[in-house]
Design brief:
Pfam families: Pyr_redox_2 (PF07992), Pyr_redox_dim (PF02852). This is FAD-dependent oxidoreductase. 24% of the residues lie in helices and 28% in strands. The protein is of the alpha/beta class. It has three domains: 170 residues, FAD/NAD(P)-binding domain (3-Layer(bba) Sandwich), CATH 3.50.50.60; 113 residues, FAD/NAD(P)-binding domain (3-Layer(bba) Sandwich); 116 residues, FAD/NAD-linked reductase, C-terminal dimerisation domain (Enolase-like, domain 1), CATH 3.30.390.30. A hairpin with a 6-residue loop joins strand 24 and strand 25. Helix 1 packs parallel to helix 7. It starts with a strand and ends with a helix.
């Protein structure tokens, strides 16, 4: 019988385990998870803090019991202390009893995920400073934010922006700090981020952008924490770190090929550089179609698809990974934002020459009783004219546009081809020329 060790069980681990057992129901699959829960949808933390979650139990789509029912041996609250990749064995320890044991395995699946970036800044270990990653963090943020009058969020990516939004809507005096000069700077270009920053200002969020945090200090008597940057000091009842994530791969980092940040390099079939070792999710690289290179993009969507592929390929290479465009979306106040692929700034950071075309127009005809402008940005390669990315922002729901661009990138469309796609027209939904096609037409006309 083939023995499989799955180390880590959030999204990639859950889907890999189920996929393996569906393909090989007679295999002996052991799942190791150091937390007490699996499958937590951490993207809902800000929504729960803002009272937009019907039942926090529904933030989990699987359970240890469900994995057991599928046929897995589940070791919860268990720490894998050591993995000998070449020797095909691992040592694990129960966090409840302290007991240790060894498991020989035939195949190893590393789905250990990521951990929050916590820089070695003086005072960052304050009890009034929390990360935003797992269920325990969610409970802490929910409890701290209810009844609080002030908060500081450090990091203006998706997670930090959502937290700042929800805190401000709950009447909490909120400061949002980031080392970059724009909110969501890694997700959108300036025409979109300017709109978001205006919304934050309207809702009283203090933006401390282009500022690096250098220290934290806690006043226990006052029950406050002060965050010091190179340009000022900000004091609140608590602070949340939302500074990004790094792969949690120390157990195997020196035994398989990784990127400099520790992400395990996997091939088209989720196999690492060593036979019988597979990786998926935040612990692994993705193949980023806009650049044609391996990259590190920790998203639940990537984790789910990669996890499924582990089960399909763990016996023999069968189904090839199609890559990712890092398609994503976020709702901030009444703004819907969605994107896929490269921004112009993102292309520049990667040394890629790209052009961007911007279009702002009403998303449906003016004769409708209501409509709203949509900001569209299409990023493309001036040499090949291939679509590299798209960004959309409106008070209307424009999330589907990012999926359209995602398909276009994956299919290798040029801006000319995208401009000629057969998009629907119906006044309730769009203009005679759908705005994705319209911005592609504008780009195609630029020489």
């Amino acid at each position: 019988m083939t023995t499989v060790a799955v180390v880590g069980c959030t999204h990639a681990g859950v889907f890999a385990t189920n996929s393996i057992l569906q393909q090989h129901p007679d295999w002996d699959v052991h799942v190791f998870e150091r937390n007490a829960t699996v499958s937590f949808l951490s993207c809902g933390i800000a929504l729960w803090a803002g009272n937009h979650v019907s039942d926090p139990k529904k933030m989990f789509y699987s359970s240890p019991a469900a994995l057991e029912e599928a046929g897995a041996h589940v070791h919860m609250e268990t720490d894998v202390a050591d993995i000998d990749v070449a020797g095909h064995s691992l040592v694990y320890k129960s966090l409840e009893t302290g007991d240790t044991a060894a498991l020989p395995f035939d195949k190893l699946v590393v789905t250990t995920g990521s951990r929050p970036v916590v820089p070695p800044i003086p005072g960052i270990d304050s009890p009034l400073v929390t990360t935003c990653k797992n269920w325990n963090d969610a409970v802490s943020i929910r409890e701290r934010s209810h009844g609080a009058k002030s908060a500081i969020v450090i990091g203006a990516g998706y997670i930090g922006a959502e937290l700042a939004e929800q805190f401000s809507l709950n009447g909490i005096d909120t400061t949002l700090i980031d080392g970059l000069d724009r909110v969501l700077a890694n997700n959108f270009d300036r025409p979109v981020t300017d709109l978001v920053e205006h919304k934050f200002a309207e809702h009283g969020v203090h933006l401390a952008l282009g500022q690096k945090v250098v220290a934290f200090s806690t006043d226990e008597e006052a029950g406050t924490v002060t965050v010091t940057t190179g340009q000022g000091e900000y004091t609140a009842e608590f602070a949340v770190l939302a500074m990004g994530f790094v792969p949690n791969t120390d157990l195997v980092r020196d035994q398989v090929e990784t990127l400099d940040n520790g992400a395990i390099v996997v091939d088209d079939y989720m196999q690492a550089s060593v036979p019988d070792v597979y990786a998926a999710g935040d612990a692994a690289t993705v193949f980023y179609n806009p650049t044609g290179k391996h990259d590190y993009i920790p998203l639940a969507t990537n984790a789910v698809r990669q996890g499924l592929l582990v089960g399909l390929n763990i016996d023999k290479p069968t189904v090839k990974y199609m890559g990712t465009q890092a398609t994503s979306a976020v709702q901030l106040y009444d703004l819907s934002l969605a994107a896929s692929g490269l921004t112009e700034a993102g292309a520049g950071r990667r040394g890629i020459v790209a052009r961007s075309t911007e279009l702002v127009e009403e998303y449906r005809p003016q004769f409708m009783l209501s409509t709203a402008p949509v900001t569209c940005i299409l990023t493309w390669d001036p040499a090949t004219r291939k679509v590299l990315g798209g960004q959309f922002c409106s008070t209307a729901d424009i999330s589907g546009a990012a999926n359209v661009v995602s398909v276009a990138i994956q299919a290798g469309f040029t801006i000319d081809q995208l401009a000629n796609v057969d998009f629907l027209f119906q006044p309730n939904f769009d203009q005679p020329v759908y705005y994705v096609g319209a911005v592609a037409m504008k780009a195609a006309g630029e020489r």
